[in-house]
Write a structure and sequence with these properties.
- The chain has 45 helices and ten strands.
- The chain has 902 residues and is mainly alpha-helical.
- Among the domains are: 151 residues, P-loop containing nucleotide triphosphate hydrolases (Rossmann fold, 3-Layer(aba) Sandwich); 73 residues, Arc Repressor Mutant, subunit A (Orthogonal Bundle), CATH 1.10.10; 161 residues, Alpha Horseshoe (Serine Threonine Protein Phosphatase 5, Tetratricopeptide repeat), CATH 1.25.40; 60 residues, Winged helix-like DNA-binding domain superfamily/Winged helix DNA-binding domain (Arc Repressor Mutant, subunit A, Orthogonal Bundle).
- The N and C termini lie far apart (114 Å).
- Keywords: DNA-binding, Transcription, Transcription regulation.
- It comes from Kribbella capetownensis.
- This is HTH luxR-type domain-containing protein.
- GO terms for molecular function: DNA binding.
Length: 902
């Protein structure tokens, strides 16, 4: 080696600094934290800067050297590809007359140094470490005694993780290249590049040139190949195989990496890569937990290209995906198993997973994944493997392809029926279960007999080991079984078999919880909420409905389950007299696509809406809502007919339609709700004026054990008022306690609203609370009923108790309908008010003042009124209205407003 004296070393360093050190770019970002680290590092014999290409090593070092030069400090810069100046410097530094302390030597691209030079550096560091101050920038580790020096505090290593740009540094760098970059742009680039310098610059330049933030790694192929190609080539083939096997996963544990690659040491390899910062990052909750490894997106892109460009790499990935599919399939994770099978491109494996796990994946809401599975199969594959037709039918049902679902259901049914009794395979069981699932679904819409479908499902699920033909009962996976039980319960609910429905829902919940399938858990709870509501268990139903929504978490319930939960929560809010919340739940039901096609939900929605309209004082709209039964494939279940009849009865009594009220009693008798029919007949008997007879009839009806709880609570409050009016204090007090006892368990406040405006009931509550032993629910009841606003009473509705109040001057019900020129018309309550004011001769201003509305609103009501009466001016309107009995002064007005509700 050529010897260099100290003064010549200094001369060479100055020459290198002035002529061969790269100039810092104009877009330089000063990285003070790294400068401080380098200042600290060069106090020791060795500082290593190890990171892939494009991470900003050279820019950082050039800026650091320039700063030292400006401060008068010497440095020797040696490029790795031209190490000639280094040889003499090392010879001199190793001699007896070496300078102390020596100037630092910066070696850029040290990975390009000849092997002999690296060996010489290693020897100096081992024998005379204090003789040198080396700062080496390399793309990978070199065979130097770094660990020994680090243990002695004589070496510092900075890696990729240290060179990553912080958010503040990235902002400065991006905006230096693209002045129009926003904070949002920088955040997006940081997410995509993880602070990698070269990629940040690429993104910024693309933004500056095109104004487009949609920068993609795929558009940077030459640069990526340059930056990453060498990096990947520095690791041995075994590590490359691990990377190729695992990069398709968003993240992997060491165990999963070993499974995917088939290499038991895969986890350790990823750990080494993460430790060196080679575009693999390890995440761990605590030091003792198993780390989770994630690949830098740029590394993923390079690996993807290598797979696309080399068949041997593609084979590695395919084998990894196949192992992954088997692994997840054996663990019961159908979603990940199917994704891996699709990656492996193995039709037989895809088909097997679709048959075994397809229903579970569909129930989890991942419809597109199952659709991708079927699309990946070769043309005609399902016809050649017909066991799949049931799963395809379930997919079509879930995606709204009703025609396709019906066709597949028919095929599945024919195949299941034609199967030989022996031997029975798991595929046969799966096909039979899917056929039954589809048949239960069809039966709820009248396309097949619901009782036959229920019987077939029960046979499939029977506990006996074999059926009458000696065929073994089906053995089903927990997800398929839970879904089948939920569908069975839905059909049983429609068929009025509520006890059986609850029993099967309990089984479904146990099974779904065993499988850990949150959406099926939510589905079972949502269906149970409906059954509980139909039995008057409103508070229990609300708990089940809320638990159903909570079970699915952020993923959310499938619409057909969620709509059940929301309609039940709407009724629960109504029961608490929280009308705003009830309206919000109603709106969620209306916004759900399946709400109109599910008969049970459609009927419950109509009932909820009618009640809310009633409470809003919109009697006309409520009456319209209740004019006809909801469309259905057959007779409504008795619980829906019961609820509709009870609501129609209330509306009839409110508007004075006694014949309509009696019609609803007949309806209740006809559908088997005789206890409810007898109770409302007892209530309406008060119009005959014999209170004692009414009380006797009510006592008899209330003693029936099967009477609907909300109606029983309402009747008990009615009885309380009658006893209070009679002055029987003791009996009234006992009746009040009985009312509260009936209403409290399910917090049925809404059932008490018919007495909410009765002074006798509220006074009785006040006195009860002042007594020695008030009921726990009395205070809440008084508070809620005292603030209850019966909007229906402000537009002509009158409660039965108000009609028969001894001291009440109840005006006759306002007539709103008439026949004009052979056509029946009906006024709204507000139009009738305007007509009455018109009959008094009032002006627009006087009418507006009397009714607390604007003059424009008066004119709007008058236009509608004139249209209905077939006239164009005031005088004609009054003449026609008097002729048909629509004014309060009309001679024809007699029996009051009798809109027929039956």
């Amino acid at each position: 080696m050529t010897s260099l004296k100290p003064d010549r070393v200094h001369e060479q360093s100055q020459h290198s600094a002035s002529g061969r050190i790269p100039r810092p770019p104009l877009t330089l970002v000063a990285r003070e934290r790294l400068h401080s680290a380098l200042d600290l590092g060069v106090r020791s014999p060795l500082t290593m800067l190890i990171a892939p290409a494009g991470t900003g090593k050279t820019v950082l070092l050039s800026d650091w050297v320039a700063r030292r030069r400006r401060s008068g400090q010497s440095v020797l810069w040696v490029p790795g590809q031209a190490p000639g100046a280094l040889a003499g410097a090392l010879e001199q530094l190793a001699g007896p007359d070496a300078a102390a302390p020596p100037d630092p030597i910066v070696i850029d691209d040290a990975h390009l140094l000849p092997t002999a030079t690296v060996t010489g550096l290693a020897q100096i560091l081992k024998k005379s470490p204090h003789a040198v101050r080396l700062l080496l920038a390399s793309r990978y580790d070199l065979p130097l005694p770094v660990s020994e020096l680090e243990l002695r505090g004589m070496a510092l290593t900075l890696r990729s993780r240290d060179l990553r740009f912080t958010d503040a540094e990235a902002t400065e760098l991006v905006q230096a290249h693209a002045s129009n970059a926003t904070a949002a742009d920088v955040r997006l680039f940081q997410e995509r590049t993880a602070g990698w310098a070269a990629a940040l610059v690429l993104a910024a330049r693309t933004l500056a040139a095109s104004g487009d933030t949609g920068w993609s790694f795929a558009n940077q192929q030459p640069v990526l190949d340059l930056l990453l190609g060498e990096t990947l080539s520095t690791v041995d083939e075994r590590v490359q195989a691990v990377l190729l096997s695992t990069f398709g996963a968003a993240s992997v544990t060491g165990h999963q990496a070993a499974m995917l690659s088939g290499d038991a040491d895969a986890g350790a390899m990823l750990g080494d890569l993460a430790g060196s910062g080679l575009l693999v990052t390890a995440y761990a909750d605590d030091p003792g937990s198993e780390p989770l490894y994630r690949f830098h997106p740029l590394l993923v892109e390079l690996l993807r290209r290598r797979v696309a460009g080399r068949s041997e790499n593609a084979q590695i990935v395919t084998a990894a995906q196949h192992r992954s599919a088997l692994y997840y399939e054996n663990r019961g994770d159908g979603c990940n198993a199917l994704r891996a099978a699709l990656g492996a491109g193995d039709p037989a494996l895809v088909a097997r997973i679709l048959l075994g796990h397809g229903p579970a994946i569909l129930a989890a809401g991942d419809l597109s994944l199952v659709a991708d599975g079927f699309e990946s199969l070769p043309e005609g594959y399902v016809e050649q493997h017909p066991h799949l037709v049931g799963v395809r039918g379930l997919l079509r049902r879930a995606t709204g392809d009703v025609t396709g679902a019906i066709m597949d259901a028919a095929s599945a049914n024919d195949l299941a029926s034609a199967a030989d009794p022996q031997p029975v395979t798991p595929d046969d069981n799966a096909l039979e279960a899917d056929a039954v699932l589809l048949r239960l679904w069809e039966s709820r819409y009248g396309w097949h007999d619901v009782h036959a479908a229920i019987g077939r499902a029960r046979t499939l699920l029977a506990l006996d080991p074999t059926d009458a033909n000696g065929r073994p009962r089906a053995v089903l996976g927990p997800e398929r079984l839970a879904w089948l039980l939920i569908e069975l319960a839905a059909a049983e609910t429609w068929a009025d078999e509520l006890d059986a429905a609850l029993s099967h829902l309990d089984e479904a919940l146990v099974t779904a919880r065993m499988a850990g399938h949150q959406r099926l858990i939510g589905g079972g709870l949502a269906h149970r909420a409906v059954v509980q509501y139909t039995r008057g268990q409103i508070e229990n139903a609300a708990g089940s409905a809320q638990a159903a929504l909570d079970a699915a978490g952020e993923q959310g319930l499938p619409r057909e389950y969620a709509v059940r939960a929301h309609v039940v929560l709407g009724f629960a809010a109504l029961g608490h007299l929280d009308l705003d919340s009830a309206w919000r739940q109603h709106e969620l039901v209306v916004a759900t696509d399946v709400a109109g096609s599910d008969t049970v939900v459609a009927a419950l929605r109509a009932i909820l809406r009618a009640v809310l309209l009633l409470e809003a004082g919109r009697l006309e709209e409520a009456l319209t809502e209740l004019t006809t039964d909801p469309a259905s494939a057959g007779p409504l279940p008795s619980f829906l007919s019961r609820d509709l009849a009870l609501l129609r009865f209330r509306m009839a009594t409110m508007v004075g339609d006694h014949a309509g009220a009696e019609t609803q009693c007949d309806v209740l008798d006809r559908i088997g709700n005789t206890s409810e029919a007898e109770l409302i007949r007892a209530i309406t008997s008060i119009v005959r004026g014999d209170v004692q007879t009414t009380l006797k009839l009510m006592d008899e009806a209330l003693n029936r054990p099967d009477v609907y709880p909300p109606l029983a609570s309402a009747a008990a409050s009615f009885r309380t008022v009658l006893l209070a009016r009679m002055g029987d204090e003791a009996a009234a007090e006992a009746a009040l306690v009985d009312t509260l006892n009936r209403a409290t368990p399910q917090r049925m406040l809404y059932a008490l609203t018919p007495v909410g405006r009765e002074p006798d009931f509220l006074d009785r509550l006040h006195r009860h609370l002042a007594g020695p032993n008030p009921h726990p629910f009395a205070a809440a009841t008084l508070e809620q009923l005292s603030s209850y606003r019966a909007a229906w009473s402000e537009v002509g509705g009158t409660s039965l108790l108000a009609r028969v109040r001894p001291d009440a001057q109840v005006p006759p019900p306002r007539r709103l309908d008439a026949v004009i020129d052979g056509a029946r018309i009906r006024l709204t309550p507000r139009e009738a008010d305007v007509l009455d004011q018109l009959a008094l001769g009032n002006s627009y201003t006087e009418i507006a003042r009397a009714l607390f509305i604007t003059e424009n609103t008066v004119k709007t009501h008058l236009m509608s009124l004139y249209r209905k009466l077939g006239v164009e001016k005031r005088s004609a309107a009054l003449r026609v209205a008097r002729a048909v009995g629509l004014t309060q002064q009309s001679p024809n007005q007699g029996g009051g407003f009798i809109p027929r509700i039956g």
